[in-house]
Amino acid sequence: MSCFPHSSIRPARRVLAAMMHPDVNAAAGVNARGKLKQRRSRKACQHCHTRKIRCNVLENGTPCANCVDAGTTCIIRRRKNQSFPVWSNGNAHQRQHHQQQQQHHHQQQPQQQQEGQQPQPQVQHSQRSLAPNGISSENNGFANGVESQSQSSTPPLSADGCNLWPDLGNELNAWEQNSVVDASSASCDFSHLTDLDDIFTFTGNTFPTTLPHFQSDFGWNPTYAQQNHLSPPPVLPGPGINENGNLPLRPPSSLTTSVHIPGLNPRDHEYLRGEGCFDLPPAQVLKQMMRMYFRMNHPNLPVIAEDQFWALWNGDEFRVGEFSFLLLRAMIFAATCYTELETLLSIGFVSKREARNTYYRHAKLLFDFSIERDAVCSAQACLLLSYNSPKYNILRLNTYWVTNAMRFARIARANSYHRARDPVKSKLLKRLWWGVIFRDRILSLGLRRSVQFELDPSWAEGEKHTLTAEDFQSELGNSQVHDPETQLRIFEVIAATCRLMRCISHANRIMYTHEHLDDRLEAVSKSVPGTIADIKRCLESLRQWHDQSIRLFPFPISLDDAHETICVYANLMFSYHVSAVFGLNTYLILLREVFPSARSLFSLEESKEALEAANNDVSRRTQELVQVRLVKFLPISASAILALPLVLQAINVAAARGSGMEAVEIRRLDVFTRTLKSQQQSFDGSDFCSDVLANIVAYAQDDTKLVSSMTSWRDGTGKDVNSNAVNGGNLQASAQGGQNKIKLDWGNLVYKRPRLFLRLVLYLDQAFSRGGPPQDEDFPPELQRASV
């Protein structure tokens, strides 16, 4: 049944009749028309019954299309002559005989269609509006064609790009809508529920999407698509066939593979299909993207069992019906930034960012329409979607996805993985919960936001829950992208990252429990000594982690000794460590400027040295990635981590302008600018980083004191004016032209202009946290323009 008027349905059905039975001559048109006569609907609402028009309430639920057009309330009525066979316990053989008759009819009708015979009209009341369950793509080529066409968002094109069926218009749309309903119904027979008026009255939707999932009762899994592979669907024979009965094939680059989600509201299915959510890349491209996923995404977020995934592939064919379709969509999105641009161009995209945004939208739509009913798959997909990086992130969409992932992971009891009896499931749940921790802590560190949950004490200390090679035992040797030796080294990186996340959790709790600076300083004012002692303990734990991890991954991590995946993520891991160290020492300097009592509680010289050591470490690691041309594999989190070193290096370049060190400083700055440009090719969020950095540099240039200091230093007239900070013996000096000159770089801003230094650093922090530029009143009085 369809929601289109009768006048638009009948031409399409005549076309279908001609397609099914080409041997029928035109003289039989009247008889054929009589056989295609519309039957009465088995159920109609009060409005349609009064007007004597066909009602589609069984297919689309309440309100029906006619009530929507008329603007009336759709009220379901019960037909007086409605009757169904009722089987008593004593007549079980009658029920079995009735089921055998129905099964015989289901097996007979496809055979009749293949032989060119007209199928017998159905008189069973419960089967009129449902497609026969026996139709399959293997037994009925036409049924397979209808299924393929219902999943395609555009009609076939001729060689010149024109629509092959220009005159069918609404008829074709009506036929497609009808085929979607039949295909959805064929997967599972809900006819025994069509007499339950309450389902339609109170849900306002079709019952397949509101029923709970009981696979043992219905024998189907609505979470996954019901196809066996992703090979391109056969071309649908239709009104535009040529003289040989063949339809011109589309160019290979435009071939897509479509899937169908059973149990989905037909209207929702039609909308998602029109948006391209069910169209997958060609099988060869899909496999290439999945290889890049397990090559670059998986080592950074190991939440999917790689061995189980590759077991579903047979050559270039993938049994998508046995895998979560939402999760597959999320994997495609995550792998896009690592896919070669030439590959994306071959399937119609013009850039990585366009492909990434398109695939993100497809996955988000599927999530919004709740096609996934498994908590583990939902959590995995949300973690991958947290890599979305919009240009303006005021709504914190990536944090939204992490929150959803945490919720689904807790529903699956991933935080209590050890209680699962199945060891395979237990290991996967453990990896899933660590994936939630990874994404939450890294987002908190990079975007200067509070964490979404605290670690359980048993997770925060000791090695009990740390991921080890044993948790990936099933994957060892079963990867299509890494050899076993590389896999073992990747597992070591993952284990070291687990230990680092414990330290970063402590650092994030200190720095970002209160995201606004005034709230943060108000909380610190209650116990300044206690806060500083907590910072020192955290710095010590970070130092111990560094000493332990640097022995496992000594610098430089050369491609001669390690795989490129290890080179990228080991260096990135140490960059996370640098970011935490830099943030904590900056926090100490902030407390020193706001609370005079804090000045005697720590050494400013030690903090300055720690800042310089951290900055040098991240600079040389980034330079290493640039030299070996691996910056293209850095995730979006690298933009937030490297933004501050870029600003500080820009200050050094400005200070060295016209001097002999200018070329050296420019080369160091070029390392960061090239990295950011590489990020801009794949991620929208890197544009925001670029805008923030430009604002910070402009703010520094607008500071007349800083500009005059740099000018006087370059002119040789600079003097040590830092009498209020520390004594001159602690400053870096060099003899040039018989004059002692202070080396004016960002490091000495800590001594000479600490509030300006804090203003620049905290401007970046607040911009990342808020998703927009901060205002002057967002800073404490000591750091506002009048005081800096």
Instruction: Identify the overall geometry.
Output: globular
Backbone structural class:
mainly alpha
Number of helices: 31
Spans of 5+ residues with little confidence (pLDDT < 50)? 1-38, 79-95, 104-256, 718-740
Relative strand content: under 5%
Residues in helices, as a percent range: 40-55%
Mean pLDDT: 73
Characterize the largest beta sheet: strand count, sense, and whether it forms a barrel.
2 strands, antiparallel
Number of strands: 6
Largest sheet: spatial strand order: 1-2
Radius of gyration: 33 Å
- Oligomer class: single chain
C-alpha termini separation? 73 Å
Can you offer a commentary on this structure?
The structure is a single chain. With 788 residues, this protein is mostly helical. Among the domains are: 280-453, no CATH class; 465-624, no CATH class; 646-721 and 734-783, no CATH class. Helix content is 54%, strand content 2%. The chain has a two-stranded antiparallel sheet with strand order 1-2. A hairpin with a 2-residue loop joins strand 5 (733-736) and strand 6 (739-742). Helix 23 packs antiparallel against helix 24 and helix 26 (637-655) runs antiparallel to helix 27. The model is unreliable at 1-38, 79-95, 104-256 and 718-740 (pLDDT under 50).
